[in-house]
Specification:
- By secondary structure, the chain is mainly alpha-helical.
- The protein starts with a helix and ends in a 35-residue tail after the last helix.
């Protein structure tokens, strides 16, 4: 009698466990859930690409400053020559002064033109799904 009760209880528990697992998997495979997962992955990939682009830009600025220093581009030049670009050195100093993110999920932002207080300042986003 106890043997039958044990196997009946074990079978019922296995059935409940299997039903729960199947229902959980079915919820993960609904179109809404798949769309949400794809959107999350796309956003995460976009942040990684943006961080990569910022790292490349930072490296370009640093290398340009190194080459400018090695080639003597910071030395005074003849007035007949075009004006020098000094923004690379300033950008390197700004990058070196920046502190790292406080936590792993903090994403950096792309540099943009500063808002000068103009109330008609428009957001230069490329999102085509916005209502205009």
């Amino acid at each position: 009698m106890f043997r039958r009760t044990f196997w009946f209880t074990a079978g019922a528990a296995a059935g409940v466990w299997a039903t729960t697992k199947v229902n959980r998997k079915l919820r993960q495979l609904t179109p809404e859930s798949l769309a949400a997962q794809a959107a999350d992955k796309a956003i995460e990939t976009g942040h990684k690409l943006k961080d990569f682009a910022l790292d490349v830009r930072e490296g370009m600025v640093r290398r340009e400053a190194e080459l400018g220093g090695a080639l003597g581009l910071e030395a005074p030049v003849d007035q007949d020559l075009p004006v020098q670009r000094h923004w690379a050195v300033e950008a390197v100093e700004a990058v070196e002064a920046a502190e790292p993110a406080a936590h792993a999920k903090a994403y950096r932002t792309l540099p943009s033109t500063p808002n000068t207080g103009n109330t008609n300042h428009t957001d230069n986003s490329n999102n085509r799904n916005e209502d205009h």
